[in-house]
């Protein structure tokens, strides 16, 4: 047998060549992938999993990989530079990793993929005897199908049907050792072969039994506890394809459309419109051909509405959520069955549906949130929905500031005071300047006071000892008598088309939003404002009028 290079594609590996090819679609890495270059010896032990992946099993204590603090146990090896340093080879099975470790060279470049969820390292400790468990008491695996051989054992010629017998699964490819597992025989020691371990075999450049291998620079007990804490977390796995859930008869919510086949699937479900919050950069990052998807939607009479909202940007979601709900309402009134989507399906899309139920259908926010999250696994930004709710109500109230509080404001005086003096907060919200609030000394020159206020504009000052003073580090305004006061605008007013300037926080004062049950007047104002935004959407162009 001879080593046969069965890799499908070779990529330039030198630093200059990699930079030159970084714009090539063939070499472009996913967001979950990274490239690292290590000096030899690498100090990595690789393993082959039952899923057919070659992954990092353990790191040598004090080795180059551990010192680099980049590679983690569980990372999948995707590509490796060849011995000449002129290209990258795709890693298809464990024999490819073995060949990489045997190659000569001062350094080694690798492309690895970080798993979407934490790797269960504790299983590696439990299965430290896996080579013996896997093969103990087994009879040879006989076959006349040479295609189940690992790449380093496949003949360089075309004849691949010679018979052979094999004892160790490391010499099989994925198809071969899955055939081995499918026999379902018991190994005689009480272990069921297909259930005793997740590892088929391992390899490393180190053969000495005295080498100390570790699964990371942390105690195993702490890692297991961290895994338990992360069970409720959501991890987006793009390789699973488009994921979706039915919320109502007319509304579906889910992750991004990846291909024309996804569009066909939506058409078969009766979807007639797509409300998409992905940006062009997200399409590019995930390798999505948006033009092909749009053409497929057009061919299947599916209306595609794109309204990009930046991922994990609470302020942008807050500002754009009213218009998003307006788009959804317009589509529903045109009798569409709508697929509401963002990249992961975890945040923007479900937030839009929850806001629609809360604002338009008059469902309590807690009930709408429970309803949607119960049908679809997601983690929408609830505080952004609350912020946008008060922005809509403020728009309808048109400057009125009487009513129950909507926000918590943390006022801060940072200029200190003399020994024995106290600092008070006074303003238009403290009984019309007549009821000062004593501030609490936090540290050094810092004094703070948390006050619950309704959205609106307020003027205030600080009383330091006998003097009324304003803070020069906070926004100020001069009144009609020429007196300078600090001023704060709590909340904001919703708008159809928020300007870029509005997407940035203007006041350094820390403000927290309050989520509470709405009054009858607030519910009326909310429904009125949400529909007013929807009426500003052109029904033909689905854009601001």
In short:
With 545 residues, the protein is α+β, with helices and mostly antiparallel strands.
Cα radius of gyration in angstroms: 31 Å
Spans where pLDDT lies below 50 across 5 or more residues: 1-14, 18-23, 128-140, 184-197
Class of secondary structure makeup:
alpha+beta
Strand content: 15-25%
Mean pLDDT: 79
How would you characterize the overall build of this protein?
It comes from Platanthera zijinensis. Keywords: Hydrolase, Protein phosphatase. One of its GO terms (molecular function) is phosphoprotein phosphatase activity. One of its GO terms (biological process) is starch catabolic process. Residues 35-116 form the PDZ domain. With 545 residues, the protein is of the alpha+beta class. Helices cover 28% and strands 23% of the residues. It has 15 helices and 26 strands. The strands form six sheets. Strands 18, 19, 22, 23, 24 and 25 form a six-stranded antiparallel beta sheet that branches. It starts with 9 loop residues before the first strand and ends in a 10-residue tail after the last helix. The relative contact order is 0.08.
């Amino acid at each position: 047998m001879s080593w046969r290079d069965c890799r499908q594609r070779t990529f330039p590996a030198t630093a200059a060549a990699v930079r030159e090819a970084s714009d090539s679609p063939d070499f472009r890495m996913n967001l979950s992938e990274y490239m690292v270059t290590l000096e030899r010896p690498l100090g990595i032990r690789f393993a082959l999993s039952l899923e057919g992946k070659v992954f990092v099993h353990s790191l040598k204590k004090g080795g180059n990989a551990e010192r680099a603090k980049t590679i983690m146990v569980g990372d999948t090896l995707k590509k490796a530079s060849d011995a000449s340093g002129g290209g990258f080879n795709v890693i298809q099975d464990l024999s490819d990793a073995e060949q990489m470790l045997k190659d000569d060279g001062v350094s080694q470049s690798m492309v690895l993929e970080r798993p979407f969820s934490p790797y269960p390292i504790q299983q590696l400790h439990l299965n430290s005897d896996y080579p013996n468990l896997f093969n103990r008491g087994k009879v040879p695996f006989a076959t006349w199908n040479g295609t189940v051989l690992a790449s380093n054992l496949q003949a360089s010629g075309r004849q691949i049907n010679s018979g052979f017998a094999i004892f160790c699964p490391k010499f099989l490819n994925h198809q071969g050792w899955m055939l081995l597992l499918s026999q379902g025989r018991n190994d005689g020691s009480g272990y069921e072969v297909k259930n005793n371990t997740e590892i088929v075999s391992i390899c490393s450049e180190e053969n000495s039994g005295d080498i100390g291998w570790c699964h990371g620079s942390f105690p195993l007990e702490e890692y297991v506890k961290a895994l338990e804490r992360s069970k409720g977390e959501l991890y987006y796995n793009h390789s699973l394809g488009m994921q979706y859930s039915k919320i109502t008869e007319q509304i579906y919510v889910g992750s991004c459309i990846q291909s024309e086949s996804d569009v066909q699937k939506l058409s078969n479900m009766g979807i007639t419109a797509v409300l998409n919050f992905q940006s062009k950069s997200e399409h590019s990052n995930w390798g999505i051909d948006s033009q092909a998807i749009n053409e497929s939607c057009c061919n299947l009479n599916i209306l595609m509405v794109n309204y990009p909202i930046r991922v994990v940007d609470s302020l942008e979601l807050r500002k754009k959520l009213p218009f998003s709900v307006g788009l959804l309402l317009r589509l529903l009134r045109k009798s569409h069955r709508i697929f509401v989507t963002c990249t992961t399906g975890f945040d923007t899309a479900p937030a839009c549906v929850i806001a629609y139920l809360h604002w338009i259908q008059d469902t309590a926010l807690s009930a709408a949130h429970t309803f949607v999250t119960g049908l679809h696994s997601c983690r929408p930004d609830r505080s952004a929905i609350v912020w946008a709710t008060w922005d809509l109500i403020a728009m309808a109230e048109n400057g009125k500031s009487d009513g129950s509080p909507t926000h918590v404001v943390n006022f801060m005086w940072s200029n200190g005071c003399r020994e024995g003096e106290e600092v008070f907060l006074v303003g238009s919200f403290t009984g019309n300047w007549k009821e000062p609030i004593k501030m609490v000394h936090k540290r050094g020159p810092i004094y703070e006071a948390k006050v619950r206020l309704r959205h609106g504009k307020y003027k205030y000052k600080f009383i330091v000892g006998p003097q009324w003073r304003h803070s020069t580090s906070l926004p100020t305004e001069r009144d009609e008598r020429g007196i300078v006061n600090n001023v704060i605008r709590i909340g904001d007013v919703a708008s159809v088309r928020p300007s870029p300037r509005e997407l940035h926080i203007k006041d350094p004062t820390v403000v927290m939003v309050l989520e509470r049950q709405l009054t009858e007047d607030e519910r009326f104002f909310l429904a009125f404002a949400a529909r007013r935004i929807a009426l500003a959407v052109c029904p033909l162009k689905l854009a601001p009028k």
